[in-house]
Amino acid sequence: MLVFDIIKDLKLSYGAPLRISRQTCFSRDRVSGVPVKGHTLKMDQALLMFYNQLPHDVEVLYTSDYCYKCVYQRLIQVKANHKNVSAVISTKFTLSMRVESHKGIKTLCRWSETYEEGGHYCIWIGKSVNGNNVSCIHFVDKRPNNSYMPILVAALSLSITALLFVVTPYAYRKWRTSKFVKTICCKIPQYSLDEVHAGNDESSASKVKPTRLRSLDTFRGFALTVMVFVNYGGGGYWFFQHAPWNGLTVADLVMPWFVFAIGTSVVLAIRSMQRRGVGRLQLLHKVTWRTLVLLMLGFCFLNYSPRDGPLSWSWLRIPGVLQRLAFTYFFLALLQTLWGNKENGQSEGHWWSPVQDVVLYRSQWLIIILLETLWLCITFLLPVPNCPTGYLGAGGIGDNGLYPNCTGGAAGYIDKWMFGDNMYRYPTCKEMYRSTQPFDPEGILGTINSIVMGFMGMQAGKIIIFYKGKNVQILCRFLVWAIVLGISAAILSKCTRDEGFIPVNKNLWSLSYVTCMGCFSFLLLGGVYFISDVKGWWGGQPFIYPGMNSIFVYVGHSLLGFYFPFSWEMRFQESHWEWLFQSLWGTALWLIIAYLLYRKKFFLKI
Q1: Exposure string for 574-588, b = 16+ CB within 10 A, e = fewer
Q2: Among 446, 600, 465, 474, which Cα is nearest to 534's?
Q3: Alpha-carbon distance 513 to 505, whole Å?
Q4: Contact 423, 438 (CB under 8 A)
């Protein structure tokens, strides 16, 4: 809830006519009983004290500016004639507030304010100087905390650490290769690969194993690292948590990146196996087995932990992250196995040569276009009982409270029809929109667009294969795809959070969300590819380690994330310091574990 607590039974005093000062609402002289500064505020909370000088009762209502067309909610009632009462509110988003006469006959004043964590605020409600209008005047009794100081300190510390890890090996290599060190310590013959006899080239080349694409492992590892961090709470900051409904936060970026990496890996891995002579039936067997293992991991293990008590079908969740990844992988792998062996079809003499990585895979593109058409038709044409056709809202108090039970529109309706109550009961819209319906962000309809997102990753893999050795063309193609997808997302969303044709929405995996994340994915993978594989400036550390052991890290952090030493019961909940430290600590432990497994050459394969 936006209002965490209403402090009741506060002893009130009848005082003299109001004097406007800092001590109007908060001093012990004006408010008998426990002083306000004795109240303990937690993270993302502020204290508001309302002082009513009017001769009649008033009601204070609020809504969040992030909540789209939400109905105002009652915050508190303030009695007449110099009465004051306080309420604890959330500081995550800007609040729109208004004061109404009793029973809502008339709005007396309204304002929009971003309150800050730990602050004590006083709002005086009284007649203006001319006595004709009502004014609401703000005072700050206690200055708020700097809630962003922990993350600034953490960012500075991590930057210094990263700089040391980069500079130290570079300085060491420079020192080892200096002329003085070579003269004193390295008086041995030096040879270049270019001086090796040409007759040995073919035999040695056949023994050299193909190198992994470091940028892909790094890209996947970076997405997984951020995913672990946000799953551990992200320090309690709202922008490291999923958006309430429409819009983007850091937490909304990571899963599409991971899906994109799956698509790229599918193309590279299946091509590698086909070149080694693995048959189509063997590929299908391997793909099916891996899909089943991912489904079992997601359904049987990540759905349940000992802290949940006895396993019960009544609360078991059927959809899930690994389940969606499994279905996405299976469909993409089928596409690549059955219609993906086009390597010998390359040609430089046709007009379509610049887009041959699209034209030669037209069968795959046709299937993906049909899938996306299916998503659009179901989303905007499927009749949903007691809901408007094509509804994409959060329900609850949103959209002026007209559709309280329509959360997710067609997507929510299909999931409830398929799974009943066996899905996610705490959607991100529940707190702000006061929705009562379960809604699963990993539901059936969203899986279609997850496949489309993975197919964009497949396109990146095809570009790397088709233009192998031509790094400029690869980077240009990545940039072109990023521009096309970015423009598409801008048109679909109208560059707004809520007013577009199809808003950017992670819960629904909307088309604009997929195109927006596809744009970001091409840019990020292209940047890492340039730095790591083209220039060799960065080996991908430390993200390359979890990227090469992604299943182990994801399953491990999901199963053990609530246990020591990865997390503990926090004792200092007044600020973000301990929560941010805990999130960084748990994430760092998994990076260290991934590094140790890398050193031991242990990689969990399915």
Answers
A1: ebbbbbbebbbebbe
A2: 474
A3: 6
A4: yes
Question: Residue 336's closest CA among 274, 253, 285?
Answer: 274
pLDDT at 181: 46
> Is 242 among the catalytic positions?
yes
pLDDT bucket at 35, cuts 50 / 70 / 90: very low
In angstroms, the CA 216 to CA 223 distance is 11
Cα–Cα distance measured from residue 381 to residue 400, given in angstroms and rounded to the nearest whole number: 23
From 39, 56, 197, 242, the catalytic residue: 242
User: 449 exposed, middle or buried (CB, 10 Å; 0-12, 13-18, 19+)?
Assistant: buried
Annotate 329-365 with b (16+ C-beta within 10 A) or e (fewer).
bbbbbbbbbeebebeeeeeeeeeeeeebbebbbeebb
Q: Are 97 and 113 in contact (CB under 8 A)?
A: yes
3-state secondary structure of 49: strand
C-alpha 556/C-alpha 55 separation (Å) is 62
Helix, strand, coil percentages in the chain from 3-state DSSP, rounded to 5: 50, 10, 40
Q: Retrieve residue 113's tokens.
A: 């304010």
Model confidence, pTM: 0.85
Quick one: pLDDT at residue 23?
A: 47
Tokens representing 305? 């932990």
Residue 590, SS3 per DSSP: helix
Provide the edge-to-edge strand list for the sheet that holds 45-52.
3-6, 83-90, 45-52, 120-127, 134-142
Beta strands 95-101 and 134-142, pairing class: unpaired
Q: How many angstroms separate the CA atoms of 89 and 404, rounded?
A: 24
Phi, psi (degrees; rounded to nearest 5) at 579:
-65, -40
* 304-318, 340-354, 578-592, range with greatest mean pLDDT: 578-592
CA distance 570 to 550: 28
In this prediction, residue 476 carries a pLDDT of 92
DSSP label of 373? H
For the chain, the farthest-separated pair of C-alpha atoms sits apart, in whole angstroms, at 104
How many angstroms separate the CA atoms of 397 and 414, rounded? 22
Amino acid letter, 322:
L
CA 558 – CA 567 distance, rounded (Å): 12
Angle between helices 444-466 and 410-419 (to 10 degrees): 110
Q: What is the DSSP string of 96-134?
A: EEEEEEGGGS-EEEEEEE---TT-EEEEEEEE-TTSSSE
Question: Over 501-536, what HEC string results?
Answer: CCCCECCCCCHHHHHHHHHHHHHHHHHHHHHHHHCC
Record: fold of 3-142: Immunoglobulin-like (2.60.40)
Return the ∠ at Cα 150 (arms to 145 and 154), rounded to 5°.
Answer: 165
The most confident of 351-360, 509-518, 530-539, by mean pLDDT = 509-518
pLDDT of residue 308: 53
What's the Cα-to-Cα distance from 22 to each of 7, 344, 378, rounded to whole Å?
21, 79, 58
